[in-house]
Request: fold
Amino acid sequence: MSSHRGQMIDEALVKHIAFLIRLELTDAEVATFNKQLQSIVGYFDRLAEVDVEGVPPYQQVAMGRAQLREDAVAPSMAREDFLSNAPQQQDGFVRVPVVLGGGEEG
Amino acid sequence: MAETEYEIVIGMEIHAELRTASKMFCGCPVVDTTVAEPNTAVCPVCGGLPGAMPVVNKLAVEQAMLVGLALNCQINASTSFARKNYFYPDLPKGYQISQYDDPIATNGWIDVQTEDGGNVRIGIRRAHMEEDTAKSFHYSAGGARGGAYTLIDFNRSGVPLLEIVSEPDMHSVAAAYAYGTKIREILRYLGVNSGDMEKGVLRFEANVSIRPRGTEALGTRTEIKNLNSFRALVRASEYEIARQIEVVEAGGTVVQETLGWDEARGVTVSQRSKEHAHDYRYFPEPDLPPLTIDGAWIEEVRQALPELPDAKYARFVGVYGLVENDARILVEDQALASYFEAAARSYGGNAASVSKWIVGELAYLMNRDGVALEAVRVTPESIASLVKLVDAGTVSLSSAKDVLATMFETGRAPEVIVKDNGLVQISDEEALSQIADQVLSDHPDEVVAFLGGRESLLQWFMGQVMRATRGRAQPQTVLGLLRGKLEARRR
Reply:
């Protein structure tokens, strides 16, 4: 599903991923994560070497009707508890910096 | 080049909140977000707290199946959830649980009626389930609290949402409007969405492109997001088509982008132009296994399908013999259609006259006083009785309108009103003959004028008789009597 399947990790990709999750990285951090991500992805290359000839693909156990939830209301959290997780709040809302636009990739 | 040399191509995505008591993946109540106190219907699941696990709402799935069936879609035997990843504060988890590869419903169609009375078949590519996002309120800089900021209400986060994606089969703004109207009507018939666009429970997106007429390849499309009214759909689409034609005419090319509609300025505005902003990195939702939908379940849901607008329309015209306009007005509102059917059953005869009273006089009174059908005091049975009184000649047509107005105000039965107010129509020829004689002898000048050729005075005499009887005279009888008496004077 991912458009990055089979893609090699390099510094440009690390920067792109950092942008997608809005992390600011120093050049030193980019170098560190580049190395770490390369070694993680490297393990998957070893998986590709395993001979799976004749082994059926893993199927996630499916759920049916019985596993679904009836449409019944359950209690929500107390608002102050929920808001206590937010760095900023105002008038019962979570307050965040302005977020219009998609941001710029650095 | 003139505008007509381009063909318009529009596809639509409609986001419809489903009508459940609880959210898509948790038990938080679905509240009216225009009224409820912010952040009072939030829990760890829809608030995106770590470790919380989603559990699918069965009713939401069944409502999605119902819509799929109503839109002539295939319901897929296996359907799965996927994470759509993007960074925005209205999405507390950093992803939206949606569907990607195998949505619940695919490959459907509906017919829509265009203004010229024709039918256009619009393909439905897919309908997929997802969760709604939180609501953001943007405040610009310069207020008492300093710089620009955004306030977020998570009450809407996790509300079940169905996204219905059409094929780009609409070739006019009118067709897009007709399609949106039809989908709204179907959703309301199914009882899965109130259709109340002011509450934000139904939102449109239009994918618009143009191409030289006669060519096959699709032009570059732009996507106009968050159209929250039919007016916005029409205005934004018209604006965007004109803008694209202008770009092409000037020798430029249309850039594929996401646009917002600025209602106040009446223009579309670019929202995200960078390609990577659309990098949603979909992957299967690890917290939810694929959902198997067996044939028995589909059949069970199919049994719950109500009669849909097209079928009802065909039946009203075919079985009750209604004129097309009346049938269309009744079908637009399921409750009004039911009201009509109850009245038609009670009436028993040719129901076309009953529909005329409902679509005409009753609708007029409702509009005039701003009364909704639920609050109307005239029962279907009593409106049927009124039409019978008119048929039997007990009350004249013009008196009957007054009777209905009284019924509307008091809820009293028509027979009682007619009797109490002395409105019983005078159809006794002898009585009417005397009154007609009186009118003619009271107005000798007009009689002379009539005989001299002013034929239109016949209606005036008629009016005099009506006045003398306070509208109770049987018009056909009076007309015949007056004609006879005037002709007799000619000799």
In short: Chain B has a mean pLDDT of 91. Chain B touches chain A through 65 residues (CB under 8 Å). The first strand of chain B starts at residue 6 and ends at 17. The longest helix of chain B spans residues 230-249.
